[in-house]
Amino acid sequence: MRTSRRVVLALLAVLLLVGAAVAVVRFEAVDRIRERVAPEPSPGCIADDPTSSGCVTPATLAAYEAVTARFAGGLVESTCWSEHAWNPSSDHPEGRACDFFPTRYGTFATGDDLTEGWAIAQYLRDEAAELDVRYVIWQGRIWYRGAFFADADGGWGRPYDGGGVYDAEDATGGHYDHVHVSIRR
């Protein structure tokens, strides 16, 4: 009788543990969906942009400062706020995006510049949660934080087609001369 009672209690304990694990996984999935569908609102473009006369969100400023501190010697230029009148869906006018140029504007990165660009892009990916990264574009690839689809071609995002606004074959339009990061808030 005692053995069967122990077996029943052990089975109940296992069921409780499995149930708790399923609940945690489900809540994580729900949180990831909520982040993509209805993220917390941005506090707005309230911080001075160090790259222009515009403004950025506090999270964008923090990401900018983190990247420029880490890669200062390898950056030719950085820009954040911009009107981007040709692209009304851009995050730049909302102060939620920055571009980091490891090479000159309009040139395809090669050699050390290409390596530096990949290091910046990978850093933004690795620190995506801490820096509140929404997505990164570099070398004709786009990577989304928390994407539900698997990364293609060796784990770095999927091909970037320019979103119907940019020429993806162009050095700037395809993001071959700069790493673009969009911040969630």
Tell me the layout of helices and strands.
Elements: H1 2-37, E1 47-48, E2 55-56, H2 58-71, E3 77-79, E4 97-101, H3 111-126, H4 128-131, E5 133-138, E6 141-144, E7 158-159, E8 179-183
Antiparallel strand pairs: 1-2, 3-4, 4-8, 5-6, 5-8, 6-7
Q: Determine the strand fraction and express it as a percent band.
A: 15-25%
Give the end-to-end Cα distance, rounded to a whole number of Å. Answer: 60 Å
Mean pLDDT: 85
Which percent range fits the helix content? 25-40%
Whole-number radius of gyration? 21 Å
β-strand number: 8
**Strand neighbour order, sheet with most strands:** 3-4-8-5-6-7
**What is the element string, with H for helices and E for strands?**
HEEHEEHHEEEE
Outline type: elongated
How would you sum up this structure, described in words?
- It holds the Pfam family VldE.
- InterPro entries: ARB_07466-like_C.
- It comes from Pseudonocardia oroxyli.
- The strands form two sheets. The protein has a six-stranded antiparallel β-sheet. A two-stranded antiparallel sheet has the order 1-2.
- A hairpin with a 6-residue loop joins strand 1 and strand 2 (55-56).
- It folds into two domains: 1-38; 47-183, no CATH class.
- The chain is built from four helices and eight strands, in the order αββαββααββββ.
- By secondary structure, it is an alpha+beta fold.
In short:
By secondary structure, the protein is an alpha+beta fold. The protein has two domains: 1-38; 47-183, no CATH class.
Salient structural properties:
185 residues, alpha+beta, 2 domains, six-stranded antiparallel β-sheet, two-stranded antiparallel ribbon, 4 helices, 38% helix, 16% strand, ARB-07466-like C-terminal domain-containing protein, ARB_07466-like_C
